[in-house]
Specification:
Blueprint: E1 7-10, E2 19-24, E3 27-32, E4 35-41, E5 46-52, E6 63-68, E7 71-76, E8 79-85, H1 93-104, H2 109-121, H3 128-134, H4 138-148, E9 159-166, E10 176-182, E11 186-190, E12 197-202, E13 207-215, E14 219-226, E15 230-236, E16 243-245, E17 250-251, E18 256-262, E19 265-270, E20 274-279, E21 284-289, E22 294-303, E23 307-315, E24 319-324, E25 327-333
Antiparallel strand pairs: 1-2, 2-3, 3-4, 5-6, 6-7, 7-8, 9-10, 10-11, 11-12, 13-14, 14-15, 15-16, 15-17, 18-19, 19-20, 20-21, 22-23, 23-24, 24-25
Helix pairs in contact: 1-2
Length: 335
């Protein structure tokens, strides 16, 4: 079963016909109707899938980005086109020095393990190499050290969540950038082709869910639900490429499982079966008890005499509930 962040309906050919993309179990599958029409292998378990336009060229055919491990795999016409790798994480100098000495043979395995343990006890954040090394017995440590001789000692983060941010206009086929949350507590904004980082922000905790609004060239906000159970907001700074984590922090009683942003309101569903709305400055607007825990939430744009944005909440009891503010305006039941 794929996560909702790995399922997208998309018009890949610009002819109005939609196909279903599903990323799961190291595969990217393409469905037309109920049939799988193509399948691509992935190097790692996917965590998110996004469809975005990288340029203004016609015909309007989007790219597909699949986040897996430390990479975002970008596809054009469902063929591999580009692979973006997260920037390496800085390794603590003490950790790096111990590995340099061990690989040069200046200290033996036992002394190296003791020094790494002392560094960890003193509060040093150890690299993945060090954590794996300490988890092995003597012979395993020896083999691990030999395998790492001549290998560049670098630390890679992994992608935890991903969305898109439109560049200069709010249309369905607008040029967009990928917005990536990482295990290293960072949020990165890439350039539209997805080749380099153009803006970054560091959070107090690891982002798990992000909701993006605005335009990169004008004004934007990224709302981040993090593993510490708090919601943080990142906004653009005074100069382009600058990002600021605002002082508005929303603390929740239970862990959130979905977030959405409409105008100046942040909607959150939590594991205690509640839908809560907050003002972007952190003040609670209202809180509703749901008949069952939520599984996901999204924004629906309704256009009649005027444009109304509402949230649709998917529940474990097979209901989909559409809310305009705190008013329930429609319920549908699925099989």
């Amino acid at each position: 079963t794929a996560h909702s962040s790995c399922v997208r309906l998309v018009d890949l050919n610009g002819d109005g016909s939609k196909i279903l993309l599903v990323a799961d179990k190291k595969k990217l599958k393409v469905y037309k109707g109920t049939s799988v029409v193509s399948e691509q292998n992935l190097l790692d378990q996917p965590v998110s899938l996004c469809v975005f336009f990288t340029d203004d060229k016609n015909p309007r055919t989007p790219a597909v980005g699949v986040a897996a491990g430390p990479y975002v795999f970008i596809y054009r016409h469902l063929r591999p086109y580009f692979k973006f790798r997260l920037p390496p994480v800085e390794i603590d100098p003490q950790d790096a020095k111990i590995w340099e000495e061990m690989r040069a043979g200046n200290i033996d395995l036992g002394d190296g393990a003791d020094m790494l343990n002392q560094a960890r006890d003193a509060g040093t954040k150890l690299s993945d190499w060090s954590i794996e090394f300490l988890g092995k017995k003597e012979e395993g440590r020896r083999q691990f050290l030999e395998a790492k001789r001549g290998v560049v000692h670098e630390q890679l983060s992994v992608v935890t969540c991903m969305e898109t941010l439109k560049k200069y206009e709010d249309t369905d086929d607008a040029v967009s950038s990928l917005v990536i949350g990482t295990e290293d507590r960072e949020v990165l904004i890439l350039d539209p082709p997805g080749s380099k980082v153009i803006c970054r922000a560091e959070l107090p905790s690891v982002p798990a869910i992000i909701a993006v609004t605005g335009l990169y060239d004008v004004e934007w906000r990224i709302v981040c639900s993090c593993r510490d159970g708090k919601i943080y907001t990142i906004k653009n700074g005074e100069t382009k490429g600058n990002a600021v984590v605002t002082g508005s922090v929303i603390e929740l009683e239970t862990q959130p499982n979905a977030i959405a942003r409409i105008e100046k309101s942040i909607y959150v569903t939590t594991m205690d079966a509640k839908l809560t709305s907050f003002h972007i400055k952190g003040r609670m607007n209202f809180s509703l008890a749901l008949p069952a825990p939520a599984t996901d939430m999204g924004v629906v744009r309704l256009q009649r005499n005027r444009i109304v944005e509402a949230v649709i909440v998917a529940l474990q009891n097979r209901e989909g509930r559409l809310y305009n503010g705190k008013d329930l305006i429609h319920t549908l039941t699925t099989p």
